[in-house]
Specification:
alpha/beta, Leucine-rich repeat, LRR (right-handed beta-alpha superhelix), 9-stranded parallel sheet, 15 helices, 41% helix, 9% strand, LRR_dom_sf
Length: 396
């Protein structure tokens, strides 16, 4: 009589995979991930097992702990996407880690209350975030913190792009004008901070209700700065006095290559101040003065100065109330200048005679890539002739 085989009854509440003991290395991976706060290290784990640990790590681990240790982009991608629905990677150096640190810091600054929150904690955040923060885009700063803290070289040593917009979103019936725009005290602290920073290259202060007094204060700081090459002051309230202060920055020592003054309150005297600066400036590549009531005389002065300027490649005088005398200067510029590649003179009042001047001048110019005179009353025939002449240069 044979021995019956042993039968093992499997309880109904157990799944089959629960009967097997996981491999020791898988158990180790789980333990390492669960205790990463106590021992933030991967030791001598190989690449495969290190990746398994990263996949199991909590997304709530302290940044100060994981920042220096975890380089794996997959972790920072998970952490970013769990927090923000809109993650534009290209705006953050195509790095998920950089994106996380930059958006986290910007959000912290936007919500920071200097009265009720600890400034030392903010300084700690700035310091340990520094290696991965290159761009800061703050869209709604409600507080008026000391910008010298933010731009201190000992805290943010890699910052090269900064956009500041003071205000609040979705205020509804709680709207107060005092909630929006930079105050003079902000401009004072920014000016002092700009004297220190050596890495900041792009500074965007658009839409901050900056007037002449405020921009003069900011200009005093930029005058002592040798790193800012891109300055955007568009959509503010800068008039002629403020522009004169900015024009003084365009001397022979200037490092500015991009200046955007679109949509301000610049008139003829401001235009003349810019023109005087252009005569000696050797650094500026792009100048945008569109949507300012500079007038015919102011525009003519700028165009005449640009004719002799050898560095400028892009000039925007769209909707600046340019007229007949500006058109004649524009014709000379097209004939004589060899550095300008793009000119926007649209939405002015040149008339059909002006259209003929531009069209004839283009026949002798071989370097201009685009010139826009649409909606300047030059006539449909001249618009078409200018367009076809430029197109023919790039037809192979």
């Amino acid at each position: 009589m044979g021995v019956e085989p042993l039968k093992i009854e499997i309880p109904h509440h157990l799944n089959r995979h629960e009967l097997f003991v996981p491999a020791l290395k898988d158990l180790c991976v789980k333990v390492v991930a669960e205790n990463f706060v106590l021992q933030p290290s991967f030791g001598s784990l190989d690449k495969e097992n290190k990746a398994k640990v990263v996949d199991l790590l909590s997304l709530e681990l302290p940044l100060e702990l994981v920042g220096p240790v975890i380089e794996e982009e997959v972790y920072w991608k998970r952490r970013s996407q769990s927090r923000w629905s809109n993650c534009e990677l290209s705006a953050h150096g195509d790095s998920w880690k950089q994106l996380y640190f930059e958006k986290n810091l910007a959000q912290t600054l936007e919500n920071f209350d200097p009265v009720n929150e600890d400034l030392e904690e903010l300084k700690r955040l700035l310091a340990f975030s520094s290696p991965w923060v290159y761009n800061l885009n703050m869209k709604q700063l409600p507080s008026h913190m000391d910008l010298q803290v933010l731009l201190s070289p000992s805290l943010l040593s890699n910052l090269f792009f900064m956009k500041l917009t003071y205000g609040r979103h979705n205020v509804g019936m709680d709207y107060e004008q005092s909630l929006f725009g930079m105050k003079l005290s902000d401009c004072v602290s920014l000016a002092r901070a700009l004297e220190w920073t050596e890495t900041l290259t792009y500074l965007n202060l658009s839409s901050n209700l900056l007037d002449d007094d405020r921009v003069k204060m900011i200009a005093s700081g930029i005058a002592e700065n040798k790193s800012i090459s891109h300055l955007d002051l568009s959509h503010n309230k800068i008039a002629d006095r403020g522009v004169k202060a900015l024009a003084s920055l365009l001397d022979r020592r200037s490092v500015l290559v991009f200046l955007n003054l679109r949509s301000n309150q610049i008139h003829v005297e401001g235009g003349r101040a810019i023109a005087r600066a252009l005569k000696s400036n050797k650094s500026l590549l792009s100048l945008n003065l569109s949507l300012n009531r500079i007038g015919d005389e102011g525009c003519r002065a700028i165009i005449e100065a640009a004719t002799q300027n050898e560095s400028l490649t892009t000039l925007n005088l769209s909707a600046t109330a340019a007229g007949e005398s500006s058109t004649k200067a524009l014709g000379n510029l097209i004939r004589q200048n060899t550095s300008l590649a793009r000119v926007d003179a649209s939405c002015n009042d040149f008339g059909e005679e002006g259209g003929a001047i531009v069209s004839e001048a283009l026949e002798t110019n071989k370097t201009l890539q685009s010139i826009d005179v649409r909606m300047s009353n030059v006539g449909e025939n001249h618009e078409k002739a200018i367009s076809e002449m430029l197109k023919s240069r790039f037809t192979f």
